[in-house]
Specification:
By secondary structure, the protein is mostly helical. It has one domain. The two termini are 23 Å apart.
């Protein structure tokens, strides 16, 4: 149980560590921000496919395996799309500065919050995946999953800091949101550990759902944003490097 708690906290804290690093580069240039965001997009794309969608298929047996996974991906994308339509109301809760004088800040903050919400959504089933490994007694596999998730969470934490601060959100609220996404993953890990029988049944759909949210956000928000400031080529190569690096980690840890 102690190992489970330490792993859960470690996975969740990886996002916070990334956030602290993000504060160091909060005034970075558009070029640097686009490269880092693209790198994270590549990491997330690999995690969505290799770490979420493919495992969703592998954890199932029977004729409905593909249908469950495809349905999960589509539902995840639709969910984030619906959130996208509701997000214009969310920036009022976070209290960005200067939104009445600078409405572009509110629009920018809405996009960032959509990204953060998607991260929070996908953190829960990721945590469950790690927890299920411990609950079934396969500690080695659980540590492999948790290690890959933690590596992915660091750049995620980095890329959400600068955009939120640039959109006018205070540093305190920015850090609180980053910590919140990490706590969700801790909850997911413990939930998976204590409810193996339940989470094993819903895990394939949950993994695919999380993958769908990531693919939607990568395509609808992250790639367009990183290609909007004249640094398309660097952003593209950065995405590929992020994808390959996450693929390498998955292969080595696996």
């Amino acid at each position: 149980m102690e190992l489970v708690l330490l792993t859960a906290v470690g996975v969740g804290m990886a996002t916070v560590i990334g956030s602290v690093i993000g504060f160091i580069f909060e005034k970075a240039s558009h070029r640097f921000s686009d490269i880092v965001l693209s790198f994270a997009a590549g990491v997330m794309l690999c995690a969505a496919v290799v770490g979420l969608i493919i495992p969703s298929l592998e954890t199932q047996t029977g004729n409905w395996s593909l249908a469950v996974t495809v349905l999960g991906v589509i539902c995840g994308a639709i969910c984030v799309n619906l959130i996208d339509k509701l997000v214009p109301h969310l920036h009022n809760i976070t209290g960005g500065k200067g939104e009445e004088k600078h409405p572009e800040n509110a629009q920018r903050l809405n996009k960032v919050l959509l990204f953060v919400i998607a991260i929070a959504i996908h953190n829960l089933p990721e945590g469950i995946a790690a927890g299920v490994g411990f609950g079934t007694g396969d500690r080695a596999q659980a540590l492999v999953i948790a290690g890959g998730i933690a590596l992915q969470n660091i750049p995620e934490g980095m890329v959400i800091i600068a955009p939120m601060i640039a959109a006018g959100m205070s540093k305190g609220k920015t850090l609180a949101i980053a910590v919140g996404t990490g706590i969700i993953e801790i909850v997911g890990t413990l939930l998976g550990y204590f409810a193996v029988s339940i989470s094993s049944a819903v895990l394939p759909f949950a993994l695919a759902f999380a993958g769908g949210t990531m693919i939607y956000v990568i395509s609808d928000e992250m790639i367009p944003e990183t290609h909007a400031h004249g640094h398309q080529r660097g952003a593209t190569y950065s995405l590929i490097i992020g994808f390959c690096l996450m693929l390498a980690f998955d292969f080595i840890l696996g």
